[in-house]
Each structure stands twice: as structure tokens, then as C-alpha cells.
């Protein structure tokens, strides 16, 4: 799933679904509990109501028993019949039990206990009056009994009892009423609660359902997007002109595109799961680990690598191919993408070009040999004296045939130089001898213009070079000087050793090189003035060839000129030392990474003069391999590489333990001139956030060793990082924090720190904008540690390069920088 | 003074003629020309013993190096100096010709007025 923007919202949806499930469960539990409590309280109420009814019936029972006793007593009093005493006795017996039971029931009810006590007292009073009646009847007869009954004591007691019974029943009724009211309010509360809970439940279910729906929909959409992306990529895959093959970690073929099917003559099904050696001439399965069968160093695959291999078609035909290999890290391991280009056609064109050049070389020169030979003989007077006019015409024809010869020679030279076919036969020689030989060769030519050539005396200057090619260079310089000198002028040739350089200088007395022509004087077919070509007979290729040859020698061809005062061309070549190892031993080894062979050669030469040996890598993969295996003092990295860019390379170096502490100097190509010359330089270390204390410590520690307590300017918009750095470096250095470009500039206007730690993303611009300010009048730069979380991408890469180009530092300062850096390294060890 | 006997081998008639003009400017040169490698071998087989052989490299049929090889197989001409004359004379190729047994290479187009002098100079330096 390559769309990262979905991850968080997918997570949100899942979280919402989970929350609503939890909420629904909780609501269900609360609702269930509330209902359970309602049932419980209802049944308790029911029991209480039943109890209250029981109490009321007990009260009624007591009253009934008292009436029964009174009825029995009345019967006996009126009739004297003993049978009437039987129900009386029963009622009196039951009355005690009923009163006791009632007492138990009413003891908890407030007010009812007093009523009960009153009732018990009244009942015994009533019983006593009844008893008195019965006694009067049995002892005194009917008249006495009537007198006792008629006294009204019994009726009075009975009336009191009625009042108490009424009170008791009223208390019970009130109690029942209260219970019922409580039950009603409770039921209402439960109703409201349950309704609310159900509403919440419904809402939670709705939210959960919506979240699930959203999630499912989002999944559907991202699946759709992925399918669209896959379809798009499949279309690209299938319509690519180059063959594309993906390989699984063991080297079996996973997929091939149509171009691959066409190129190798297999169908995709035939190739599926076959070993890669089916297509390429590489070691077959089992002989070596898969990736090492394709490429020497596995680490190279990180940056991608291009190999020239031999491919084999199904029909057995062999074809030359370029294979670009890139690692593709998937959950199942390191897969490889191989993009294959059939270079048969390119090879054929190259062969054709070679054949054409060879044909030109031979076929044009053969007739020219006759023409130029005949004209030379005529012009030389071999056929006797000619009339003046004829001699003049022969002279024109002769000089132009000579020019044609030179033009062909120059074109062939350019072709050889550009195709890299020029092989130098390097031998030890004296640059003074070369000067002498060239001078002798050009003397006759110079005489035509009435110009004299002279070589100043001096000591020998030993160099290593191809004598014929160096003579070609010096001859070109001398003949140019002769051509552009006034009649009677003098061209001075001088050879001297300057430091580690042997310098040959040719000075003329012409009118100098026009300002407007200086920038393109070394370009092909460059002529100061179109009419000059005819007048002076040049091809416009000479200086371009001469400069190439000088650079192939690790040297340099340059000039000084003031208009109107002639020009001096200098050929600088490395001086050969008596002990060639002495220089190398002093400096140590450096790694140069850059895709421009000329820049690399110029640097190599310049650094060898300073006593450093160098290895050159043209691709990031190569540079990483070399850096891991070699013992380098520092790496000089060009921002432009064959397979990557310099910043990515620095990051890759920083990511590996074994190359992490390799000091890095970034070289920026001089983009303005089209061709890199390695002139603009800056010292950088490139750290990635998050904070790496030990690295910063090392960078500062190196500077601290060089003398007094160093001053460090730390530019970062994050106050916490500023604080942490200041604390981390407290013992080593004085750290001045600056939170913006403006603050940094204000500080730099007054102080010159020993090191700058620089964040790129600042509130008022990019930290890179500060780089041009760091170079003082003498061209020295303050060391910078770039320390940023900012991603380098296609957009920022050129910006870095542009800034570095602006903050150019002269070539001579590079050596000083390298020396300082490596000196510190040594001090550190 | 004994004349310098030169055998010039080139398939181009014009070049043979120009070279003849050029070499004969030097009165001390005695020149024989041959239009092909096999013709040159025939001249040698007649018993002609040149002091130097100027040999074109690219010729139809038997080319320069092939001719040189056959010349070297004849004991009486095993030491005769051979100078290649060629339009293809980049530094690598010159080395290659020397390895084949040529004393030097004269690059075409040559300087006709100085050709005889150049041949004498090469012979003088190789004799040292």
C-alpha cells in the first residue's frame, strides 16, 4: 500500500468502530443492570404490600375475636347456658396469640407499636369487663349480670378498641400508600433511564455502523486506486522499449515485459521461475550467491549499477546487452529489477564509425599524398623555374593542400580524443627537449611570417608524457604565436620548474586575445574572427586538441593576455620527482567521486602535486565499494555522478558504519561553462537528524585540537536542539546559538567562528544561503556541518549545487582544505 | 660515393611517380619502384639488393606487413631496412609497425622536398 495518506484515516475508522463496539457493550450492560434492579425492587415492594395486608387482617382478626368473646359472654349472660362460654373461651385463647403476632408485625412500624400497646391494654380491660359479667351471671344470677353489663363499661372499652383499631388500620393504609408512591417514582426513573440508554445504544450502533461502512468504502477505494496504479504500471512495463525482468531473492525470474519476450524469444510463461542464467551469461545456479553472480559488490545495488553482459536468445543467438540492476526491497526479501538494453545496434554504429574514420583517414590521405606531393615538388622548384603567376597559383594550391592535410589530421585527433581511443605512450622525458624539438619544427613556418623563435636557457624539467603528443601541443602553441605576431616579432619560449609543476610558456607580441573570445578560445572550431581562418590557415581545432592532450597528461593548458600586449600560453605538467613515493607517503590516499573524467583528472593531478594519491569513482556504487574497502583520508564528492547525485552518496556513506566518519568535501562542477573544471568547492559534512551527539562531538573535537577553545555557531530554528547541542559541547567549545538566518548573519558580521553547524530549514530561508558568506577575502571557508532533517530531492539538489557554485573557492584552496582536514584526522588518532 | 639504392613499393601510380620525383631530387639515390608486394618480391628475387625498402602498408593482394614477412624469410634480405609509408599512423599503429620489423614509419602525405633527406636520416639513426 503505497498511499500513506490512508493509513491514519484507516486507523481512525478502526478506532471509531472499536469504540462504538465498546460503548454498545457498556450501554447494554448498564441497561441490563438497571432492569434487574427494577425487577428486584418491584418484588421487594410486592412483599411489603403483602405484609401490610397481613397486618391489616391480623388487626381485623383481633377485633373479630374480641367481638366473638363479647357475643359468647352476652349469650351466657342472657341465657345462663354454659355452651355459650365455649366460643368465649376459644376467642379469649386465640386473642392472646393474635395480639402477640400483631405485636411482632407492628414492632418495626413507627407509631404502630404504641397503638399495639394501647390495644393490648384495652383488650385486657375488655376481657376483665367480660369476665366480670360472666362471674356476676354465674354467682349472682341474671339480674346482677344485667346490672354489670348495663353499667356500660364493656361498651366503653369496645368503643375505645374500635378507635385504636381504626388508628392502626389508618397507619397501615398510609404505609401502603407511601410504598406505592415510592414504587411509582422508581418505575418512572427506570423508564427514563432505559429509554435514554436505548437511545444511546442506537446512536452508538449507528456511529459504529457508519465507521465500518466508511472503512469498507475506503478499502474499496484504495483497492481501486492500487488496481489503477498497477494497471498503469503494467502498461508502462509492457510498453517500455527496454526489456525489464524482475528477479526474486534467489535469482529466479518473476516477471518479464513484452520487450523482454521479444528480445530473448521466450514467452513469459517459459521464463517464469527459471534462473537468471537462462537470459544472461552469468555463473549458473549454485556456483556463487545470486547477486554476486550479477555484480561484484552487493552494496552497489543500493545505488543501482549498470553492467555490460552477454545475453542469450532462445534460439542460441548471443547479443551484447547493457543491464541496469536496481534493488527492490520487498517483505519477501531483496528482489532485483533488471532493465536490459540490446546494444547490438550501438555496437554496429560504433564499428561503422570506426570504419568510417579509418576510411577517411586512408582514402582522403591517399589522393592528398599525390596532390600535396606534386604541388610541393612544383612549389619547391623540382620541375624547374615557373613563370611568376604560375608559381603564385601553385603556391596557393600547395598551402591549401597542406591545410587540408592538417584539417584531416585534426579531425581524426578530435575523434580519437572524444572516443577515448587516444592512447598515450608515457615515458620519462625532459619538457625542455620537447620545447627544443617543437621550436625546430616550427622555425621554417615562423620564418614565412618574419617571426623569430627563441628558447630561454634553463634547467631540465623532467615530466612523464607522450613525446609526439606534447610536441603536437607545443607546435600548436608556437605556430599560433607565430601566426599572430607582427612581422619582425619575437616569440619567446621558456621552460621552468615551479614548485611541483613543470611549466612551459609561449609568449608572443601580437595584439592579445580579444575579451569576447577568451571564454571560447578552447572550443572546437573556435576562431576569433571568421576571416582569420583564411588569412592564417588554422583549422580551429588546434587549441581544443592541445588542451585535451594537456589534461590527459594530468596537466593544464591556460593563458594570460592583455589586449594589445600579446598573450602567454602556459602548459603545466606534473614535475617528476627523484623519489616519486615521497610525495605519496606524506599525504595519504583520497577518494574522488564524480562523473566528469576531466575534473577528476585535474583534481588528481593537483592533489598528487600536494602529495596525495587518489582513486577515482565515477558512480556512487563504485564510490561506496571503494570507500568501504580502501583506507582514505577523505572523500571529494562531485554533486553529479553517473548513477546518482553527490548528496545521496554522502547520505549512503553516512548510513554505513565503516564509512560514517570519512571526512567529505563537496566539489561542485562549474555549471556555467558546460564542462566541469572542479573550480568551486566547499567543505561540508552532512549529518541527518535526529541528533547524533558523538558525530558533532568529533567534528568539534577535531577543531578543538588545533588550538584554543573553538567558537561554534549553531544555526537551528529548534530551541531544544540548540540547547541540547550547547549542553553537549559545553566542555569543548563555546556554542553561540542562532535561531534564524538573520541572527546568524548578525553574528557573522562581527565574529568568525571555527565551525558552523547549519540547519537547512530556517524560518527566514534555507541555511544554504549562508554558505557564500562563509568565505573570507583570502578564499578560506569556515568548515560547515550541515545538519538537517530536510529531505534532499530533485528540487533541492540543484539548489544546493547552485549555492555551492556561488560559494566557489579557488582550486588552490582545495589542497589546503584537504590538508587541514586530514591533519586534524591524524591529530585525532 | 656509392648510390643509395631504394626500392619503393606502392599500388598508387601517382604516389609512385611523386615519390620518384621527390627521391630523384637527391642525385645520390638510385630508385626502383614496384606496384605491388608480389612485384617487389619479384624484383628482390631477380637479385636486386636495395639499401632500403619503402613499403606502402595498405595494398590489394599482398599488403605491406605480409610483404615484409616474406622479405624477412629470404636470408639475403633479412637485414635490409624497411620503412613503412602509410596514411594510418597513429602512435599505437607506429609501435605496431616497429614490432613487425620496420625501422620507422613515414606518414603520408609526406613532404616531397624533404623525402630523400628523411630517408637518409632514418637510416643514419637506425645504423647507430
Strand order of the largest sheet of chain A: 14-13-15-16-17-23-20-18-19
Q: Which structural category do the helix and sheet elements of chain A fall into?
A: alpha/beta
H/E order of the elements of chain B? EHEHEHEHEH
Specify the helix fraction band of chain A.
Answer: 55-70%
Average pLDDT of chain A, rounded to a whole number, is: 78
Describe the fold and architecture.
The complex is a heterodimer of chains A (829) and B (128). In chain A, helix 10 packs antiparallel against helix 11. Chain A has a 9-stranded mixed beta sheet with strand order 14-13-15-16-17-23-20-18-19. In chain A, strands 2-1-5-4-3 form a 5-stranded antiparallel beta sheet. Chain A has 829 residues and is an alpha/beta fold. Helix content of chain A is 56%, strand content 16%. Mean pLDDT of chain A is 78; it is low at 1-7, 579-585, 670-684, 687-691, 791-795, 801-813 and 824-829. Chain A is built from 25 helices and 23 strands. In chain A, helix 20 links the parallel strand 15 and strand 16 (664-668). Chain B is built from 5 helices and 5 strands, in the order E-H-E-H-E-H-E-H-E-H. The model of chain B has no long low-confidence stretch (mean pLDDT 89). Chain B has 128 residues and is of the alpha/beta class. In chain B, helix 2 runs parallel beside helix 3 (64-73). Chain B has helices at 13-24, 37-45, 64-73, 91-100, 115-127; strands at residues 4-9, 29-34, 52-56, 82-86, 104-107. In chain B, helix 1 (13-24) links the parallel strand 1 (4-9) and strand 2 (29-34). Chains A and B meet through helix 10 and helix 11 of A and helix 1 and helix 4 of B.
Helices, strands, pairings?
The complex is a heterodimer of chains A (829) and B (128).
Chain A (H helix, E strand, L loop, with lengths): L5 H74 L5 H22 L5 H29 L1 H9 L2 H87 L3 E5 L5 E4 L1 H7 L3 H4 L18 H5 L5 H4 L1 E8 L5 E13 L2 E10 L1 H36 L8 H31 L8 E4 H18 L3 E4 L6 E4 L1 H17 L6 E9 L2 E7 L7 H4 L11 H7 L5 H11 L3 E6 L5 E8 L5 H8 E6 L3 H13 L2 E6 L2 H10 L4 E5 L7 H10 L8 E5 L11 E9 L4 H13 L5 E5 L3 H10 L5 E5 L2 H10 L4 E4 L2 E2 L2 E2 L17 E5 L7 H11 L4 H18 L1
Helix pairs in contact in A: 1-2, 1-3, 1-5, 2-3, 3-4, 3-5, 10-11, 11-16, 12-13, 13-16, 19-20, 21-25
Chain B lengths: L3 E6 L3 H12 L4 E6 L2 H9 L6 E5 L7 H10 L8 E5 L4 H10 L3 E4 L7 H13 L1
